[in-house]
Design a protein that fits this description.
The chain is of the alpha/beta class and 335 residues long. The chain is 51% helix and 14% strand.
């Protein structure tokens, strides 16, 4: 297949490498011509994916029209807060109706609280759309360390196309039709990874993190179901699978931000230090908080992460308030 990967961040670059190794003709697009030229010369992306050599067959392009020309599959790899800008640039370009768009970003737009599928519909209309999600840090996938992910689409043939395009001996791909659940699982777990990092930064133990992750998946599923996702999706790869890896991994940018917050540092200072590297959970915490208010869903962990980020609440007080909430039953209410 002819495949265009739109965004030269770490995840887009890792997936471009996977697709090249699967025998596809792949173009990786980035918005900065000078950096694309540097990547073409060095066959590296040291800014976003250090130490990984790019395949010689990978074409690098800074002109979006040339990058998308002839594509049968377009991988939308920009961070969710930049997806609107990418789609605005795509809208006027010639694109065949058969083109499948695969979102690999994991976030919810602030302000609008729109998922990427909703943004795609807003700018491109009713197109063939899928999401790829699951436990998949770019640093490991690019080095062929095995994992399993899932692709969700309301178009069964699009889901099968994505499965066939990406699947190989180190990247196993399952299919689903729950687009809403898959998008929300990938986005909400980043907020909970911030909380897990805060616990690490405070020097707390394994018990604490296990309890947080367990109650976190309950919270994700409760909000996700209220917004149209299926409960079972949050028990799968885009839910608990992605939650586990993002809350525990040294590669997790969201966990890193949380850890620094738990040590007492300020968010602005942490983000400045990270430069162009994006922790999706920071913005998604605001969107998730707003969505929970709109849906009337109780999300105590998300609420306390939001307060720690945006109301300057001491994370230690946030943890205490979570622990001292009214006593509850663990049993899920009927209906």
């Amino acid at each position: 297949m002819n495949i265009s990967v739109l965004s030269d961040g770490g995840w887009g670059t890792a997936l471009a490498k996977v697709l090249c190794e699967n025998g596809h003709t792949v173009t990786l697009w980035g918005p900065f011509p000078d950096y694309i030229a540097e990547m073409a010369r060095t066959r590296r992306n040291e800014k976003f994916l250090k130490g990984v050599e790019l395949p010689e067959a990978l074409r690098l392009e800074s002109d979006l029209a040339r990058a998308i020309a002839g594509a049968e599959l377009a991988v939308l790899a920009a961070p969710s807060q930049f997806m609107r800008g990418l789609l605005e640039k795509l809208r006027p370009l010639p694109r065949p109706a058969s083109l499948v768009y695969v979102n690999v970003a994991k976030g919810i737009e602030t302000g609008s609280c729109k998922r990427v599928s909703e943004l795609v519909t807003e700018f491109l209309g009713e197109v063939r759309y899928a999401i790829l999600s699951g436990p998949s840090h770019a640093e490991e996938v690019a080095r062929r360390i095995p994992t399993a992910v899932m692709t969700a689409s309301r178009d069964p043939q699009a889901a099968l196309l994505v499965q066939q395009a990406f699947m190989n001996e180190y990247l196993r791909v399952y299919t689903s039709d729950d687009v809403v659940g898959a998008e929300l699982g990938g986005a909400l777990k980043n907020v909970l990874a911030l909380a897990a990092g805060i616990l690490d930064g405070m020097g707390l133990g394994d018990n604490t993190k296990a309890a947080l992750m367990t109650r976190g998946i309950v919270e994700m599923a409760r909000l996700g179901e209220a917004l149209g996702g299926r409960h079972e999706t949050f028990s799968g790869l885009s839910g608990i699978g992605d939650l586990i890896v993002t809350c525990t991994s040294q590669h997790s940018r969201n966990r890193h931000v949380g850890e620094e917050l738990g040590k007492g540092r300020k968010l602005a200072e942490i983000q400045k230090e990270m430069g162009l590297v994006v922790a999706e959970g920071v913005k998604t915490a605001s969107s998730a908080y707003d969505l929970a208010r709109r849906a009337g869903v109780e999300t105590p962990i998300i609420d306390e992460v939001h307060a720690s980020l945006y109301a300057d609440k001491d994370p230690r007080l946030a943890l205490r308030d979570l622990m001292l909430r009214d006593a509850k039953s663990e049993r899920r209410p009927a209906g």
